[in-house]
């Protein structure tokens, strides 16, 4: 089934079930008001939501036109946002850009940061920046929402806890990252509010593209209307979602509704860095990577980070070309405090 | 007023109002079921809670005996836990123990990490460790719960958003920290679930000990029944709570119910590191500090990190010796997965 949260003026929005083709929705809030409430009691609620989804497909329940721009992130606020860096190619490139080497352990021990989860924004909400010099960069990623996971959970237990899959734009402020990471405590100000896809789907909606741990489909990232990234989320993912979840749960339990991200999707090309989409490559899911490629090739980056007015679109289509999650579509705008 | 959340088998517990002397409580859940719900709608709900608190003091409402061990953390799960390191003396000592210097900027730019907020534990719950070698250490701190804060908020706006004050034991796994911080993305596995004091209080309950930004009272930290720390939370706090909140809000809004911590309370002595309580000093709010002092004095640490069975107690008393928040009292136990 496919679930969305419609903006309704409340902090957590209203839960709806969306049709497979993303054209219609039916209210699910009579079953349970919010997605978090559904996740809190998933084993009891999910069968009812699934039945509602089937009724929606057959036209057996009232439905309305689904507009992606009416959707909030599936969880407008969450109790946890833990973002891995599972595509080690991305980590390698971004660190190279900072002049830092890739430690050998990064191939066996996942990199993960604790992100802010209190103020997610909607998939069509602007990226608000007080200062263009912050160097806003999109990061196109896949994320999962999990159920309760006990501390010390195995990878198999973690796999069973995956409830929903969605996309995320984990915006980074590249201009703030070097100084902030140098302080030693990870990201804070350099990670503003993330936006998630209009729809979150149960893994079965992904069919053969879901192998229980990752989504083997290209992530379409467009910058200002042009294809920027077509990296396959199932390729070069050094750690899959069950591994990331188990990593997060090593020393403490994770509660239902925790969101675990893949990190920026990134593919190698013949063992080395990729090529832009315009040159027939898989491209990039963030600007930092192409800047590094440019630096390697020509001594300096050419592509600027996002400026006011720049627009990013992130979407994933199934093998028949149909949008699975709807599109994240955000424009950078000046924040007037 | 003083608020607590009683464990009732639900994820968020039940909101109650507690008497000033911590002996009685009255149910507040007919007004609003949980503390998060109260914070979501604070301006409407808080006056009713305050009226209930007054009725409780005068015996005008039914009440029951308040047992601190029945309390969960005031917010059993929160949308954000952002912990500063406002006592730069602590940062300096802990970094010295890691062989790292204190950058000059740490005196003007607060250090803060994004912590896990999905699975707080109760103030009398055990600290569960799979392995004693993780090196569990308590960190006694003060924390505030805030209302909504817009992105880019001023220090004054941040000050006005402080709703409640409480204590926290922000447990650190010292054995895991060096490797994790070396990865560059901050804490994750090295910070298991934090526990907060049984009661959260509005700032007015602190009287003259609250200057609008910090609590000028000693934080009592006992280890295995012996005084370990008596550092004054109002002394050597390089950044007060409004400054910490404004730092957290620099690039994104903070939603109501976000918890902002002070970092480990730590006092200098004549400009240098302090002395143990047993030698007449203010002592320490974590073990890492005394180990550093021991290393400076004798070349090696003597005090071990917490072992199975070790107990920590964290409490703060007003100038008349009355407990303000109740006590955090936790024993380290082996986690059986």
TrEMBL record, chains A, B:
Positions of the Fumarylacetoacetase-like C-terminal domain: 81-332
Q: Which parts of the sequence belong to the Fumarylacetoacetase N-terminal domain?
A: 1-77
The keyword Oxidoreductase belongs to this UniProt entry's keyword annotation = no
UniProt keywords (A-Z) are: Hydrolase
Q: Name one Pfam family in it.
A: FAA_hydro_N_2
Keyword Chaperone set for record: no
Instruction: Give GO MF terms, alphabetically.
Output: hydrolase activity
| PANTHER family for this protein | BLL6422 PROTEIN, FUMARYLACETOACETATE HYDROLASE
Its recorded name reads Fumarylacetoacetate hydrolase family protein
- Source organism (scientific name): Mesorhizobium zhangyense
């Amino acid at each position: 089934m496919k679930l969305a949260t419609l903006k309704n003026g409340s902090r957590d929005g209203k839960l709806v079930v969306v049709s497979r083709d993303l054209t219609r929705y039916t209210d699910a809030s009579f079953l349970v008001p919010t997605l978090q409430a559904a996740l809190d009691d998933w084993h009891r609620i999910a069968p009812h939501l699934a039945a509602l989804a089937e009724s929606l497909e057959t036209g057996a329940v009232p439905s309305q036109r689904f507009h992606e721009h009416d959707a909030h992130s599936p969880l407008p606020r969450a109790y946890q946002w833990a973002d891995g860096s599972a595509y080690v190619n991305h980590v390698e490139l971004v660190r190279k850009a900072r002049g830092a080497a890739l430690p050998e352990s990064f191939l066996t021990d996942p990199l993960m940061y604790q992100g802010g989860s209190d103020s997610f924004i909607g998939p069509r909400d602007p990226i608000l920046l007080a200062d263009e010099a912050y160097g806003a960069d999109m990061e196109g990623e896949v994320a999962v929402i999990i159920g309760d996971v006990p501390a010390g959970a195995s990878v198999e237990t973690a796999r069973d806890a995956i409830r929903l899959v969605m996309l995320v734009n984990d915006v980074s402020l590249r201009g703030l990252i070097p100084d902030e990471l140098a302080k030693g405590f990870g990201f804070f100000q350099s990670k503003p509010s993330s936006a998630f896809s209009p729809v979150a789907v149960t893994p079965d909606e992904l069919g053969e593209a879901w192998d229980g741990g990752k989504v083997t489909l290209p992530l379409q990232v467009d910058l200002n209307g042009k294809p920027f990234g077509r990296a396959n989320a199932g390729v070069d993912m050094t750690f899959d979602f069950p591994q990331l979840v188990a990593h997060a749960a090593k020393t403490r339990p994770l509660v239902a509704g925790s969101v675990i991200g893949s990190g920026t999707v990134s593919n190698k090309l013949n063992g080395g860095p990729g090529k832009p989409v315009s040159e027939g490559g898989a491209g990039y899911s963030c600007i930092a990577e192409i800047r590094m490629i440019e630096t390697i090739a020509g001594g300096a980056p050419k592509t600027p980070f996002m400026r006011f007015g720049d627009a990013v679109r992130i979407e994933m289509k199934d093998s028949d070309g149909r949008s699975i999650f709807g599109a994240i579509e955000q424009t950078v705008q000046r924040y007037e405090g």
